[in-house]
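Inverse folding, one chain.
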């Protein structure tokens, strides 16, 4: 794969060759002084191109320590991890088709995301990306509280409750701002925090009249306690290819930790017939399985329907993970449900809004509503907190009484988020 900076380096070399060609032609008719000058320019160009080449390889070298290996990528089966199709051009609000994400919301080119010019692992000419060259936030000192996944079947429903933190405790060293090389590519300052989320799904979901579009935000939940988002970032571009997640496959949208694809370790327990085990549930009630079909054969988009699922061997309709876009679901076969979120609905429902593009009530641009910031920080319902504090200035004592929150905690949080 050729990177952006490698391209720049090659351009310089090309022009140097050009220049030398030109110099060789004119040398016999020029005087000594011009010759010296030309030689200097030539040397400068050589040094410059060498420096550029070096700096681009240094950037690549610097990022190398953040790359990871995947068992899925270690064999020749399935998609080629070094040439994965970039999903940017497979985002459609118009139709569903194999390999596409049928999205409900038009792409927002102004949403935050990675800085394209600093991405070294995507070949934008060829529209390919290299999973094995992508950097991932390592693990470090950051620890989250234990993840929770509870599932109860009652009254024809599958009731799932998570706190949106990994049950296996595998999480990177957030915030990423401590890693200059990574944050210059993707300036996500988020820190994962737990939040209670309840989902009620039909135990026997029905196939809908026709496939429906996939919203932003949580589209499912994994049995590892972490929600699943669709394949796209807020810009409608391939989130798995472009955004930096931790080496365990997740990253926070502000404080809401989520996956855009299935981290391979969650697919470690195949069924007896080699078919992948259950990864989690999609919000239309159908299950999501791992990367392998019957006999342990790695799945590809071609082997699945437009929504990224199929039905066989008594498993009923189910979706599969693939290592190629759209990674989990392309559309919903069933009727998707609204998530019922106990106290953080604004966050989980608002989709992939990482830090600066959250809609602010009564304002646009960068003004942050302190009530929202406090609600997010303390895991309170925004609407309930807004009602409780009343009109500005916020009545903290009354809000603390009404919400059963410690007044000093509430006061400190408001001070932190004073506009
Ligand atoms: Zn299957
Ligand atoms: Zn994301």
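Residues assigned per position:
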């Amino acid at each position: 794969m050729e990177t952006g900076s490698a391209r720049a380096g090659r351009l310089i070399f090309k022009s140097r060759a050009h220049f030398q060609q030109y110099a060789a032609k004119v040398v016999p008719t020029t005087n000594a002084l011009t010759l010296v000058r030309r030689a200097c320019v030539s040397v400068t160009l050589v040094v410059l191109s060498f420096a550029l080449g070096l700096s681009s390889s240094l950037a690549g070298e610097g990022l190398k320590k953040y790359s990871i290996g995947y068992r899925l990528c270690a064999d020749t089966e399935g998609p080629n991890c070094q040439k994965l199709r970039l999903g940017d051009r497979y985002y459609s609000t118009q139709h569903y088709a194999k390999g596409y994400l049928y999205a409900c919301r038009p792409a927002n080119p102004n949403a935050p995301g990675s800085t394209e010019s600093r991405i070294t692992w995507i070949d934008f000419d060829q529209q390919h990306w290299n999973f094995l060259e992508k950097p991932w936030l390592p693990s470090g000192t950051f620890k989250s509280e234990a993840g929770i996944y509870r599932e109860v079947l009652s009254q024809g429903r599958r009731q799932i409750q998570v706190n949106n933190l990994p049950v296996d405790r595998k999480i990177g060293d957030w915030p990423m701002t401590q890693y200059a090389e990574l944050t210059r590519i993707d300036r996500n300052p988020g820190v994962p925090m737990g939040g209670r989320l309840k989902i009620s799904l039909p135990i026997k979901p029905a196939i809908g009249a026709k496939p429906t579009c996939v919203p932003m935000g949580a589209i499912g939940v994994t049995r590892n306690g972490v929600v699943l988002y669709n394949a796209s970032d807020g810009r409608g571009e391939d989130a798995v290819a472009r955004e930096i997640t931790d080496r365990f496959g997740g990253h926070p949208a502000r404080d809401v930790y989520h996956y855009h694809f299935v981290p391979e370790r969650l697919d470690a327990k195949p069924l007896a017939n080699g078919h992948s085990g259950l990864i989690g549930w999609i919000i239309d009630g159908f299950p999501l399985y791992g990367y392998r079909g019957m006999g342990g054969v790695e799945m590809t988009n071609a082997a699945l329907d437009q929504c990224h699922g199929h039905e066989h061997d008594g498993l009923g309709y189910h979706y599969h993970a693939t290592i190629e876009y759209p990674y989990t679901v392309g559309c919903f076969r069933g009727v998707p449900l609204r998530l019922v979120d106990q106290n953080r609905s604004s966050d989980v429902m608002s989709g992939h809004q990482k830090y600066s593009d959250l809609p602010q009530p009564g304002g646009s641009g960068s003004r942050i509503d302190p009530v929202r910031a406090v609600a997010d920080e303390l895991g309170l319902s925004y609407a309930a907190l807004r009602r409780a504090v009343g009109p500005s200035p916020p009545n903290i004592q009354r809000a603390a009484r009404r919400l059963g929150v410690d007044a000093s905690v509430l006061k400190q949080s408001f001070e932190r988020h004073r506009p």
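Confidence is low (pLDDT under 50) at residues 1-30, 341-367. Residues 229, 239, 243, 251, 253, 258, 260, 352 surround zinc ion (ligand 2) (CB under 6 Å).
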